[in-house]
Amino acid sequence: MRSLQTGLAALLLLALGALPASAQPNNRPTALFSEESELAITIEGPLGSLVRNAPRSTAPVQATLILAGAGEPQRFAISLSPRGITRRTGGVCSFPPLRIDFGDTAVRGTVFRGQSKMKLVTHCRPGSNYEQNTVMEYTAYRLFNAVTPISFRVRPVRVTYRDTEGRRSEETHFGFLIEDVDDMARRNDRVALDVLSGAVTSSQLDADASARFGLFEYMIGNLDWDQTQGHAGEDCCHNSKLIAQTQATRAGVISVPYDFDYSGLVNASYAVPPEGLPVQNVRQRLYRGLCRHNDALPGAIALFQSRRAQIMAVIASETRLNESRRSNAQEYLQNFFEVLDDPARVQSQLIARCRR
Asked: Span 126-150, mean pLDDT?
């Protein structure tokens, strides 16, 4: 009987996409995202012009990426461009997120092998509080990694920015690289869907994955997302990416979240809740999972409860967090698990508040 129960439990976790990556049928992550050690890199280029023009333009500039290591530094010719919307154009950040494009640069035999274009999450502004925000957003990705391999992996970097125009002083900040969506999909035996906003409906989403998505965003207090919609005329979706068995598949589609700087866990000074929702600030949780997937919510709750130790360990082990931010994050997550442990609060705060 015990072996039968064990087998059924394993099948349930597999259905939820919760088994560790090594137990999944497909492959390991690329070299860059197979480790969690911090890389030291330098980006040299006309950063003064890039930053000055970023609110109006995402035009790339030619730059050099230098990777420090045990031997001689490795140099890579890259195209560097601003990316994103709010942090680039909203007037809240003095330095934009970046996209690194290796183009035809030889990366074989290096930690960047297999990479073409990479997203670099940068500091918003100078200062220790903003750096802690970046560390906390990096940690949010790792929290979802602790729940499921169907999530974006991240690699921490310590970046020195060197302006070849001489307009900006050299500065070094914490940042992190985000796994490419095609690599994430391949790692999970799926492909990234190339579709516009609204091309996939909520009825075509995988129910277990959708419930898991909604519960995770509730855990970190994030309301800045949508599983099927995005900006009109743009690729789907708002702070999430869709993956499926094939490009033509429109059943069991999985939405994978990213971009967590507007979450209560990060609690950035510029983060505000979306208009029209009954919350006063981003620290106030509001469940926005889909009502049509409420039947899958108990399984998602059981999954998160089973991963509680791993989730809390992510916070405890992140040495780049200062003690104040670590304690604050631990308390915030403990409050989440208190909701899950109380059936009455699950009913009133999750099931009854789902998104129709």
From this structure: 98
